[in-house]
Amino acid sequence: MGERTPRRDRLREQLSHDIKRSARRLLVEQGPSTLTLSAIARDVEVTAPALYRYYAGLHDIVRSLAADLVTELVEEMRSAVERRPPHDLAGRLRAATYAFREWSVSHVVEFGLLFGAPSPEAGPAQAELAKDWMVRLGGVWGPLVFETWRRQRFPVPAESGMPVDLLEQMSNYREAIGQPELPAGVIMVFLDCWRQIYGAVCLEVFGHMGPAITDHEPLFRTMVDELLARLGFPGRELR
Protein backbone atom coordinates (compact mmCIF):
# COMPACT_ATOMS: atom_id res chain seq x y z
CA MET A 1 0.00 0.00 0.00
CA GLY A 2 2.84 2.38 0.82
CA GLU A 3 4.14 2.32 -2.76
CA ARG A 4 0.79 2.80 -4.44
CA THR A 5 0.30 6.40 -3.36
CA PRO A 6 3.54 7.75 -4.87
CA ARG A 7 2.80 5.87 -8.10
CA ARG A 8 -0.73 7.25 -8.17
CA ASP A 9 0.62 10.74 -7.55
CA ARG A 10 3.08 10.37 -10.42
CA LEU A 11 0.34 9.21 -12.77
CA ARG A 12 -1.88 12.07 -11.68
CA GLU A 13 0.93 14.57 -12.22
CA GLN A 14 1.68 13.12 -15.65
CA LEU A 15 -1.93 13.28 -16.79
CA SER A 16 -2.27 16.81 -15.45
CA HIS A 17 0.80 17.74 -17.51
CA ASP A 18 -0.62 15.95 -20.58
CA ILE A 19 -3.88 17.88 -20.26
CA LYS A 20 -2.07 21.23 -20.27
CA ARG A 21 0.19 20.13 -23.12
CA SER A 22 -2.89 19.16 -25.13
CA ALA A 23 -4.56 22.49 -24.36
CA ARG A 24 -1.50 24.39 -25.57
CA ARG A 25 -1.27 22.33 -28.76
CA LEU A 26 -4.95 22.91 -29.55
CA LEU A 27 -4.59 26.61 -28.79
CA VAL A 28 -1.55 27.05 -31.04
CA GLU A 29 -2.45 24.72 -33.88
CA GLN A 30 -6.20 25.22 -34.16
CA GLY A 31 -7.04 28.44 -32.32
CA PRO A 32 -8.79 29.38 -29.08
CA SER A 33 -12.25 28.41 -30.33
CA THR A 34 -11.18 24.75 -30.50
CA LEU A 35 -10.09 24.74 -26.88
CA THR A 36 -12.89 22.71 -25.28
CA LEU A 37 -13.04 20.03 -22.63
CA SER A 38 -14.21 17.46 -25.16
CA ALA A 39 -11.34 18.24 -27.55
CA ILE A 40 -8.76 18.03 -24.77
CA ALA A 41 -10.28 14.79 -23.49
CA ARG A 42 -10.13 13.20 -26.95
CA ASP A 43 -6.52 14.25 -27.32
CA VAL A 44 -5.41 12.70 -24.02
CA GLU A 45 -7.74 9.71 -24.50
CA VAL A 46 -9.96 10.13 -21.48
CA THR A 47 -13.60 11.08 -21.11
CA ALA A 48 -14.50 14.73 -20.64
CA PRO A 49 -15.91 14.12 -17.13
CA ALA A 50 -12.59 12.52 -16.16
CA LEU A 51 -10.89 15.89 -16.58
CA TYR A 52 -12.75 17.14 -13.53
CA ARG A 53 -10.61 14.84 -11.40
CA TYR A 54 -7.68 17.12 -12.23
CA TYR A 55 -9.18 20.54 -12.96
CA ALA A 56 -12.30 22.44 -11.95
CA GLY A 57 -13.17 23.11 -15.60
CA LEU A 58 -11.83 24.63 -18.79
CA HIS A 59 -11.07 27.95 -17.10
CA ASP A 60 -8.93 26.09 -14.55
CA ILE A 61 -6.96 24.35 -17.31
CA VAL A 62 -6.41 27.67 -19.07
CA ARG A 63 -5.37 29.33 -15.83
CA SER A 64 -2.84 26.58 -15.10
CA LEU A 65 -1.55 26.66 -18.68
CA ALA A 66 -1.19 30.45 -18.50
CA ALA A 67 0.79 30.16 -15.27
CA ASP A 68 3.16 27.76 -17.02
CA LEU A 69 3.53 30.18 -19.93
CA VAL A 70 4.40 33.02 -17.59
CA THR A 71 6.96 30.76 -15.90
CA GLU A 72 8.45 29.93 -19.29
CA LEU A 73 8.66 33.59 -20.27
CA VAL A 74 10.08 34.71 -16.92
CA GLU A 75 12.71 31.97 -17.00
CA GLU A 76 13.85 33.10 -20.45
CA MET A 77 14.04 36.70 -19.27
CA ARG A 78 15.94 35.79 -16.10
CA SER A 79 18.32 33.60 -18.08
CA ALA A 80 19.03 36.51 -20.43
CA VAL A 81 19.60 38.82 -17.45
CA GLU A 82 21.98 36.39 -15.73
CA ARG A 83 24.20 36.26 -18.80
CA ARG A 84 25.13 39.88 -18.12
CA PRO A 85 27.43 40.91 -15.25
CA PRO A 86 25.64 42.01 -12.04
CA HIS A 87 27.10 45.52 -12.25
CA ASP A 88 25.82 46.02 -15.83
CA LEU A 89 22.32 47.24 -15.05
CA ALA A 90 21.82 48.73 -18.50
CA GLY A 91 22.82 45.45 -20.12
CA ARG A 92 20.54 43.49 -17.80
CA LEU A 93 17.57 45.76 -18.51
CA ARG A 94 18.23 45.54 -22.23
CA ALA A 95 18.57 41.74 -22.06
CA ALA A 96 15.28 41.33 -20.17
CA THR A 97 13.45 43.59 -22.61
CA TYR A 98 14.81 41.88 -25.72
CA ALA A 99 13.99 38.46 -24.26
CA PHE A 100 10.40 39.58 -23.63
CA ARG A 101 10.02 40.67 -27.26
CA GLU A 102 11.73 37.58 -28.66
CA TRP A 103 9.48 35.20 -26.71
CA SER A 104 6.40 37.21 -27.65
CA VAL A 105 6.99 37.33 -31.40
CA SER A 106 7.85 33.63 -31.48
CA HIS A 107 4.78 32.64 -29.40
CA VAL A 108 2.07 34.80 -30.92
CA VAL A 109 -0.89 32.68 -29.85
CA GLU A 110 0.39 32.22 -26.32
CA PHE A 111 1.06 35.96 -26.13
CA GLY A 112 -2.54 36.59 -27.12
CA LEU A 113 -3.78 34.36 -24.32
CA LEU A 114 -1.70 36.16 -21.70
CA PHE A 115 -1.69 39.74 -22.90
CA GLY A 116 -4.46 40.11 -25.47
CA ALA A 117 -8.16 40.76 -25.12
CA PRO A 118 -10.00 38.86 -22.37
CA SER A 119 -10.24 35.22 -23.34
CA PRO A 120 -13.67 33.52 -23.21
CA GLU A 121 -11.83 30.28 -22.56
CA ALA A 122 -10.30 31.71 -19.40
CA GLY A 123 -13.67 32.74 -18.02
CA PRO A 124 -13.49 33.91 -14.41
CA ALA A 125 -9.73 33.25 -14.36
CA GLN A 126 -8.97 36.18 -16.70
CA ALA A 127 -8.34 38.66 -13.90
CA GLU A 128 -5.99 36.20 -12.22
CA LEU A 129 -4.05 35.77 -15.46
CA ALA A 130 -3.42 39.51 -15.70
CA LYS A 131 -2.47 39.80 -12.04
CA ASP A 132 -0.05 36.87 -12.31
CA TRP A 133 1.91 38.15 -15.29
CA MET A 134 1.98 41.73 -13.98
CA VAL A 135 3.50 40.64 -10.68
CA ARG A 136 5.95 38.12 -12.10
CA LEU A 137 7.20 40.22 -15.02
CA GLY A 138 7.49 43.16 -12.65
CA GLY A 139 9.68 40.91 -10.53
CA VAL A 140 12.23 40.78 -13.36
CA TRP A 141 12.26 44.42 -14.47
CA GLY A 142 11.33 46.13 -11.21
CA PRO A 143 14.41 45.32 -9.09
CA LEU A 144 16.68 46.39 -11.97
CA VAL A 145 14.91 49.73 -12.40
CA PHE A 146 14.79 50.35 -8.65
CA GLU A 147 18.48 49.51 -8.19
CA THR A 148 19.26 51.87 -11.08
CA TRP A 149 17.44 54.69 -9.32
CA ARG A 150 19.24 53.98 -6.05
CA ARG A 151 22.59 54.14 -7.84
CA GLN A 152 22.11 57.13 -10.10
CA ARG A 153 18.89 58.92 -9.12
CA PHE A 154 17.41 59.41 -12.59
CA PRO A 155 14.77 62.17 -12.79
CA VAL A 156 11.30 61.23 -11.58
CA PRO A 157 8.04 63.22 -11.26
CA ALA A 158 7.59 64.94 -7.92
CA GLU A 159 4.81 63.55 -5.76
CA SER A 160 3.63 67.10 -5.07
CA GLY A 161 2.83 67.53 -8.76
CA MET A 162 0.86 64.30 -9.18
CA PRO A 163 -2.95 64.25 -9.28
CA VAL A 164 -4.27 62.80 -6.04
CA ASP A 165 -5.82 59.75 -7.69
CA LEU A 166 -2.59 58.94 -9.58
CA LEU A 167 -0.46 59.36 -6.44
CA GLU A 168 -2.80 57.01 -4.59
CA GLN A 169 -2.44 54.34 -7.24
CA MET A 170 1.35 54.64 -7.36
CA SER A 171 1.47 54.45 -3.57
CA ASN A 172 -0.75 51.37 -3.53
CA TYR A 173 1.40 49.69 -6.16
CA ARG A 174 4.68 50.31 -4.33
CA GLU A 175 3.14 48.83 -1.18
CA ALA A 176 1.91 45.80 -3.14
CA ILE A 177 5.40 45.07 -4.49
CA GLY A 178 7.11 45.64 -1.17
CA GLN A 179 8.93 48.87 -2.05
CA PRO A 180 7.31 51.38 0.33
CA GLU A 181 10.46 53.50 0.61
CA LEU A 182 10.58 54.36 -3.10
CA PRO A 183 9.21 57.72 -4.25
CA ALA A 184 5.96 57.34 -6.15
CA GLY A 185 7.69 58.97 -9.11
CA VAL A 186 10.06 55.99 -9.46
CA ILE A 187 7.06 53.66 -9.63
CA MET A 188 5.48 55.91 -12.24
CA VAL A 189 8.61 55.87 -14.44
CA PHE A 190 8.86 52.08 -14.08
CA LEU A 191 5.22 51.56 -15.11
CA ASP A 192 5.50 54.07 -17.95
CA CYS A 193 8.53 52.21 -19.34
CA TRP A 194 6.63 48.94 -19.10
CA ARG A 195 3.64 50.50 -20.85
CA GLN A 196 5.82 51.52 -23.79
CA ILE A 197 7.50 48.13 -24.05
CA TYR A 198 4.18 46.30 -23.83
CA GLY A 199 2.55 48.62 -26.35
CA ALA A 200 5.37 48.23 -28.87
CA VAL A 201 5.31 44.44 -28.61
CA CYS A 202 1.51 44.33 -28.89
CA LEU A 203 1.61 46.43 -32.06
CA GLU A 204 4.16 44.05 -33.54
CA VAL A 205 2.58 40.77 -32.45
CA PHE A 206 -0.92 41.75 -33.55
CA GLY A 207 0.30 43.30 -36.82
CA HIS A 208 -1.10 46.75 -36.17
CA MET A 209 1.74 48.68 -37.84
CA GLY A 210 1.89 46.87 -41.17
CA PRO A 211 2.51 47.49 -43.97
CA ALA A 212 4.21 50.72 -42.81
CA ILE A 213 6.73 48.83 -40.65
CA THR A 214 7.94 45.49 -41.95
CA ASP A 215 10.96 45.11 -39.65
CA HIS A 216 10.17 46.07 -36.06
CA GLU A 217 13.57 45.32 -34.56
CA PRO A 218 15.33 48.63 -35.39
CA LEU A 219 12.37 50.61 -34.07
CA PHE A 220 12.25 48.48 -30.93
CA ARG A 221 15.98 48.88 -30.29
CA THR A 222 15.69 52.64 -30.70
CA MET A 223 12.85 52.71 -28.16
CA VAL A 224 14.91 50.67 -25.68
CA ASP A 225 17.83 53.07 -26.12
CA GLU A 226 15.49 55.98 -25.34
CA LEU A 227 14.09 54.26 -22.26
CA LEU A 228 17.57 53.52 -20.96
CA ALA A 229 18.54 57.16 -21.54
CA ARG A 230 15.51 58.12 -19.46
CA LEU A 231 16.96 55.97 -16.67
CA GLY A 232 20.24 57.85 -16.88
CA PHE A 233 22.34 55.52 -19.02
CA PRO A 234 24.44 57.44 -21.56
CA GLY A 235 25.03 56.46 -25.16
CA ARG A 236 23.58 53.71 -27.28
CA GLU A 237 24.31 50.04 -27.66
CA LEU A 238 27.11 49.29 -30.16
CA ARG A 239 25.70 47.42 -33.15
TrEMBL record:
Keywords: DNA-binding, Transcription, Transcription regulation
DNA-binding region: 36-55
HTH tetR-type domain: residues covered: 13-73
One family name in Pfam for this protein: TetR_C_33
InterPro entries noted in UniProt: Homeodomain-like_sf, HTH-type_TetR-like_transc_reg, HTH_TetR, MT1864/Rv1816-like_C, Tet_transcr_reg_TetR-rel_C_sf
GO molecular function: DNA-binding transcription factor activity; transcription cis-regulatory region binding
Recorded superkingdom: Bacteria
Protein name stated in the entry: Transcriptional regulator, tetR family
